[in-house]
Specification:
Elements lengths: L4 E4 L2 H12 L3 E10 L6 E9 L4 E4 L12 H5 L4 E4 L3 H9 L7 E3 H7 L7 H9 L19 H12 L1 H15 L2 H9 L25 H21 L9 H9 L20 H20 L14 H33 L1 H7 L2 H9 L7 H13 L4 H5 L3
Parallel strand pairs: 1-4, 2-5, 5-6
Antiparallel strand pairs: 2-3, 3-4
Helix pairs in contact: 4-7, 9-10, 9-11, 12-13, 12-14
Length: about 400
């Protein structure tokens, strides 16, 4: 790696970097972040950008950096941002109020070129013979200063993307899928993850482990755990193990083990916290009684007869349409274009969303391809078109 690397950790240098990037037609980008691993919440830890000459490692954790002044460059539609598997990065940026435009996600191109899903490291090695070394993705990106391995890994995530784009563009031209890739990437402009709760800690699947009263108590305990995590800037699971809270919701006598239990964050392993939880459980139990919740009935939500019939009818319709129309179309696409492309275009989730009317946007090329396949298979167009 011979490209110069500039570590941007003060405002004047960030302003100079933005001025340089604003004059380019494209740059590559990646983020390093922490999602409830070392600290509470979904946190941006590093922004890597490569303009073809220089790699900029921008430190949003620096007290002398206002990362928001970078956002207009990312939102500039005249500048293409080349990235790889940027979905989670996009969710983070949206949560920060930044909505990047003109993205070219190379992972989308790889799927439409029928490459199996894999990491950037593997694609670079397999297709371009570039060995980027071991991964530091799971390391602590809050650490300052970042060590040489982290800096090397962060830079490698962006400096080879232009080469990979050139390689994929050539393959796309050979396979005639340039427009497909372009449409899929244009659809990224329509996404909005700004209202997604990235700290969703109540999982409905846990209901089956509890009675109605226990579930009510468990939710209150999770809310308390989450608030403590936010207060102490620690992932919630590091405050109190979820397994301990599950047992506590079933039997408050578990609090007798509070001061000796393993896995509880030391600063809260006190009598004061224990007494607070005793009162919390007491108040929540009284609240459950007022709500007439059951101590024996499962908390699992049961459907009414009409709701059950509606759900069964919907599942039946999805299966009917899938087996009658979209499964043959998917097999036809697989035969003519490849299995990875077929799975990308017509996954079970996509079929279900089309049938139930939950598909927000279906690129035009997909519609045209599905209709062409239907024609090849002598499936009436009207049977397919009504799901777009």
């Amino acid at each position: 790696m011979n490209e110069p690397i500039i570590y941007v950790d003060h405002q004047d240098l960030l302003s100079e970097t933005i001025s340089t990037l604003s004059s380019t037609d494209s740059f590559t980008i990646d983020l390093e972040f922490d999602k409830n691993c070392y600290r509470y919440g979904f946190n941006l830890c590093l922004v890597q950008i490569y303009d073809g000459e220089t790699c900029y490692l921008i430190d949003p954790l620096s007290t002398d950096v206002d990362i928001e002044i970078l956002f207009p460059v990312l939102e500039n539609e005249s500048i293409q941002k080349v990235c790889f598997a940027f979905d989670e990065d996009l969710r983070l940026l949206h949560s920060l109020g930044c909505f990047p435009k003109n993205l070219y996600d190379l992972s989308i191109a790889s799927k439409l070129l029928n490459y199996p899903s894999t990491s950037l490291t593997n694609i670079l090695a397999d297709q371009l013979g570039i060995n980027t070394g071991s991964s530091s993705q799971q390391s602590n990106w809050f650490k300052r200063p970042l060590d040489s391995n982290q800096l090397h890994y962060a830079a490698n995530d962006v400096i080879h993307l232009f080469k990979l784009q050139t390689y994929f563009d050539e393959k796309a031209a050979e396979n005639g899928v340039q427009d497909w890739i372009s449409e899929e990437n244009s659809a990224l402009n329509l996404l909005d993850y700004s209202n997604v709760d990235h700290n969703d800690f109540i999982k409905e699947k846990d209901r089956s482990d509890f009675t109605e009263v226990e579930w009510h108590i468990f939710k209150k305990l999770l809310e308390w755990q989450n608030e403590k995590g936010k207060e102490l800037n620690r992932p919630a699971y590091q405050i109190v193990p979820k397994s301990f809270l599950m047992e506590l919701a079933k039997d408050s006598r578990k609090l007798m083990d509070w001061n000796t239990a393993r896995g509880i964050y030391r600063s809260i392993q006190t009598d004061a916290t224990k007494n607070h939880l005793i009162e919390l459980i007491k108040d929540t139990t009284q609240e459950a009684e007022q709500l007439k919740l059951s101590n024996s009935k499962s908390a699992t939500l049961s459907l009414s007869s009409d709701e059950h019939k509606k759900l069964m009818a919907q599942k039946s319709e999805i299966n009917r349409v899938k087996n009658s129309y979209f499964k043959p179309i998917k097999e036809h696409i697989e035969e003519n274009h490849g299995s990875e492309i077929a799975s990308f275009l017509l996954s079970n989730r996509i079929i279900a969303e089309m049938v139930t009317g939950k598909m927000d946007h279906l690129p035009d090329y997909r519609k045209e391809l599905f209709l062409k396949c239907a024609d090849d298979l002598s499936i009436e167009e009207d049977h397919i078109r009504k799901y777009f």
